[in-house]
Amino acid sequence: MGRLLKNFKDDDYPDLVHLPFPDQTMNLIKHLFSKEIESSTSETCEAKQTHISHQHPLILVDTTKPTSSTLSCHDPMKKVELICDGCVRPIMNSPFYACADEDEHHCNFALHEWCTRLPSEIKNHPGHPQHTLIFMPKVPYKPFGVFKCDVCNFHCNGFVYFCVECEYNVDVCCAFIPDKITHTAHPNHLLSRVLTKKDHYYVCRLCFWGIVSDSFSFSCEDCGLHLHPGCALLLSETIRHKYDKHPLKLSYLPIENHKGDYFCDICEEEFYPEREGSFYHCEKCVQSMMHPACSMPIFRHKNPLPSFSLHTAVHKYVNIKFGGLVSTETHPHPLSFVQGLKSDGRCAKCGYVLEYDMIFKCLRCEFVIHYDCLS
Questions:
Q1: Does residue 89 surpass a pLDDT of 50?
Q2: Which of 129, 189, 234, 242 is most buried, judged by most C-beta within 10 A?
Q3: Measured distance CA(159)–CA(121) in Å, rounded
Q4: Domain of life of the organism in this record (predicted)?
Q5: What pLDDT, on a 0 to 100 scale, did the predictor assign at position 300?
Q6: Is the overall model pTM greater than 0.70, yes or no?
């Protein structure tokens, strides 16, 4: 069958997920609960509620109303950061839920409205069908609830579906990983979720990195094309970034009639679309270009990952919400959970550099330590 000919009928797949999602306001969880969300407005949502994931009451925030909270939605253009504690995606439209606690230690807990609707358990998950996965707001045995998702292999500290018996963990996006998708990187052909075979080497079309054996990929049976689940589900078609007033579009091929070299505006390294995969660029002014991993919508940690540490097109900490303090017997002062900078130097325990890694940092003295070295 020709690559441009459609190899499926729409009527046969009424719930098919079409990727990439159009922009950063949409993600898989919102898509799956869209029927409920369409009827959900600030008038129909509960104005105040409690949730198992947080010790304080939550209030509904509608930024379109003048009497609403002073909180603002996540806005890359205004350098406003608001990350959901459930799916760890940016909260870019309202209504949403935020912590109602107003004391001096006001926390930054927030949830998409649809993330309050997640089921308490999942049966027959394709990665672990033998046991029921139970919803948990945090894994119980790690500071800030950091775990490694057994589907996408990204670290995450959002909500988790967990097998108590096997310690199998999946983040909320991978908990609902679709059976089949379409993707504009390979239009008109159905991509099926498959388990990568042992001793077979597959390369993701979006990042040109290998897909680990015994892990999931979205694959075209006709063409032998493969996508990492994370690259397929987490890279939106367009993004907003402070470096350009226009939306940046995800591209899979070199830009037509582009005469110069390709340089990422964030890390300033040269890249080669024909052998490195997808990138974001501005179609209107043809100026801004960046690696998808460098374009992550987090502003607190401005140091992009070096290209040699990129193993997919997605930033390795895309599912981590940094911030918050932890007290430990290792150090007399509270430690802040952040991403390491070059200026942080070396770990107090192992002696290795801290740049780019998850670290704990004392804001009173010079003590810094890797997350894994402390936990």
A1: yes
A2: 234
A3: 12
A4: Eukaryota
A5: 44
A6: yes
